[in-house]
Amino acid sequence: xxxxxxxxxxxxAYHDSDAKNNGSGALNPADGSYLNQFRMDEGVDxxxxxxxxxxxxxxxxxxxxxxxxxxxxxTEPGEWFNMTVEVERSALYTVDLLYTSNRGGExxxxxxxxxxxxxxxxxxxxxxxxxxxxxxxxxxxxxxxLIEVKLRKGVQVLTLHVLSKGQMNFAYLEFKPKx
Length: 179
Ligand SMILES: [Ca+2]
Ligand SMILES: [Ca+2]
Description:
By secondary structure, the protein is mainly beta. The chain has one helix spanning 34-37, and strands at residues 14-15, 45-48, 70-73, 80-87, 91-101, 105-111, 114-115, 120-122, 141-151, 154-164, 168-177. The chain starts with 13 loop residues before the first strand and ends with a strand.
């Protein structure tokens, strides 16, 4: 889950363009609820899927996200975040991504601080048929086999970098062992 990126703050666990969380405690007002206040004092911008008024359960989805699914949004080129994971089994994994992207873009990954991939192209989920302008940020899709990564058993740190265009929402990465 991208919104469960590492602790440690700006410059250590992530880099974000502004110190404000534009989702938690802002777009989603601080009302005492877990969903609205999740990591509201962090710079990474977090929101969650809403199934009302066809926000994230809209007819332009290419994949249906779960309701109440946290995601990292308000992404800009140059931003990144670390995800420390406990790998149960050494294997070659394929990685799927649940996301939205209203203009396409590029991301890349590091593994344990070393470059893992070059620029990975993210397909746009823009759909001119949608009459609601802001909903271009809410057309969910899955990119299957986005990358392949050889992971060793134990604790590993993955970094997701936003390289170009931004405006992508990242919900989760799903790892499937290939070997
Ligand atoms: Ca921010
Ligand atoms: Ca941001």
